[in-house]
Design a protein that fits this description.
- The protein is α+β, with helices and mostly antiparallel strands.
- 22% of the residues lie in helices and 27% in strands.
- The protein has one domain (3-87).
Length: 94
């Protein structure tokens, strides 16, 4: 299961792969988070940025908070419901 570091800017998913979390899992999670495409920060039409060369191996995904997404506290609850290990890093340099 991936881990998620959550702060005021958004959610950084770490240690995941597409075999453990298939597309339907991600789509359900992103729908519940009310994630949406952020022009200039994500590939056209995508709701999450993905870095395949993340430090430490594996993938890293980023969902940005906007006025249209759920709040930080709601996001933590949703992530935990989906079995994601959450680290609340508000106010900390990441």
């Amino acid at each position: 299961m991936p881990t998620a570091h959550v702060n005021e800017m958004g959610i950084v998913f770490r240690k995941f792969n597409s075999f453990e979390q298939p597309t339907p899992w991600w789509n359900a999670l992103l729908d519940e988070l009310k994630a949406h495409h952020v022009p200039g920060l994500q590939q056209t039409g995508k709701r999450m940025s993905v870095d395949a060369g993340a430090p430490g191996g594996g993938f890293r995904g980023i969902v940005y908070f906007t006025p249209n997404t759920v709040s930080l506290d709601e996001a933590i609850t949703i992530l935990k419901k989906h079995g994601v290990e959450v680290y609340d890093v508000r106010g900390k340099d990441e």
